[in-house]
Amino acid sequence: MGKKILVLGSSFGGYHCALNLRKLLGKEHSIQVVSSDDTFTFVPSLPWVVMGL
For the chain, which residues make up each domain, given as ranges? Predict the structure, then answer.
């Protein structure tokens, strides 16, 4: 059985930490992300949202 891994914070760093852990460790381990925010905004994409792309 794999390990349970908890990533605290869902900002850009926490998001990429969880993605990289998944790539490195595979699906054998459980990776969960916990944040006090209920949304994630990828700021570099905001210009495309405004332009409707």
Answer: 4-51
